[in-house]
Amino acid sequence: MNRPNIVILGAGYGGMMTASKLQKKVSADSANMTLVNMHSYHYQSTWLHENAAGTLHHDRTRMEVDSVIDTNKINFVQDTVTGIDPDNKKVNLLNGEISYDYLVIGLGFEAATFGIKGLLENAFTISSINKARLIRQHIEYNFAKYNNEKDKKQERLNLVVGGAGFTGIEFVGELANRVPELCKEYDVPRENVRIINVEAAPTALPGFDPELVEYAMNSLEARGVEFKLGAMIKEVTADKLVYEQGDEIEEIPTNTVVWAAGVRGNSLVEEAGFESNRGRTPVREDLRPNGYDDVFIVGDCALIMNEETERPYPPTAQIAIQEAEHTAGNLKRIVEGNHNLEPFEPNIQGTVASLGNKDAIGVIFDDKKIYGWTATAMKKIIDNRYLWKVGGAALVLKKGKLNFFK
Ligand code: FAD
Ligand code: NAD
């Protein structure tokens, strides 16, 4: 193989970081490198809850791929992957097909709906720029509509979020900031609007530090968020959400349910025949799936185990970025004829979650708890660091979160 064809699928955290590192490590003379993505732009999934609530414009979250990737070195194909055929080393696209010698799959996450009745048809998910825009527009439409109907419909103003994991908590934090603005804009009394977070576990953020969970709930409740804990969502219709709490079945009238209660890897990976564990593919220590030495999986499609806890690592951008950097290094070895690949070891630097634009919680450096302004500033530093890594100072200046006092 003279110049191997390296194909990267998806320009999310995993795909972009793989491409960005490869263009620095591997010369275009020694490999053909191609990045395939359904849109011309890359977006940061970790900011989508802000776009969905309407607290941040979606153009801040996305950037054109060719503004970050050198398309003289990495060929960019804007197309949608429709299937992967690992036995014939081919990827089917909406508008053709592409062959590879080495494939990096970074096709990201989709909502896990657990077969809950009516969820797919009636709930929104925070899973892409366009889905986030839809949530924003839907909420604004309902505020506008509320005052233009004779019969005031409370379901228009009941905003229900399924799941109080990190996505649910970060989203209700943004809603808590946005709702007072919407009330002012659309002449709706604030006390008429409800923000309700429904969580199946007995606590919000199950498994996270209890002191910080309490801090987060107090901060959110003080801004009007209601929590229903130990409440398992059973069904969603066009005008209500049904949940079970204790032995009781309860209903909330609403036409806005945002499902933030779980993710899985992109179904295309399972459909390709790779092993699948609840929608994610177990990979070996060099991030290749069993049986395929020419495929690497990075980000939310990959499942890696934490040997200490004997549980899978949660799918995060932090891990996707590290896996991508690591995979670029291993591809460089392959291109140079060295097939002894390095094993991947995640380096978890902490977890920081926003509670709107002025508050946050986190654990950093193993066990240091942070909250309030310190955590808010740390979250911005983490966000800016990614932009720095992928696009340097120019990208930080263009898209970064540089105001630490707002
Ligand atoms: P993604 O970033 O989702 O990228 C996948 C890419 O593939 C996208 O560009 C998509 O357009 C493209 N694609 C998908 N299907 C196709 C197709 N068929 N054809 C072509 N292209 C396709 N993690 C953290 O570590 N810290 C956080 O603070 C954090 N906050 C989050 C906040 C929210 C609201 C959400 C939803 C998640 C958050 N996460 C966070 C998790 C993090 O976003 C994911 O773990 C991360 O995005 C995974 O990266 P990825 O590269 O695997 O996928
Ligand atoms: P998650 O799986 O972490 O949380 C989902 C929550 O929904 C859980 O608390 C679960 O108990 C609840 N749930 C599940 N089924 C339910 C039902 N039927 N009714 C009510 N509640 C139900 O999912 P997520 O919050 O979307 O996070 C996905 C991944 O992204 C995680 O790995 C997370 O760590 C990561 N993430 C990280 C950050 C951050 O670091 N700031 C922010 C967002 C997401």
TrEMBL record:
The keyword Flavoprotein applies. Pfam families: Pyr_redox_2. Coiled coil: none annotated. Its cofactor is FAD. SUPFAM superfamilies: FAD/NAD(P)-binding domain. Residues 5-324 form the FAD/NAD(P)-binding domain. It comes from the Bacteria. Keywords: FAD, Flavoprotein, Oxidoreductase. Belongs to the NADH dehydrogenase family. This is FAD-dependent oxidoreductase.
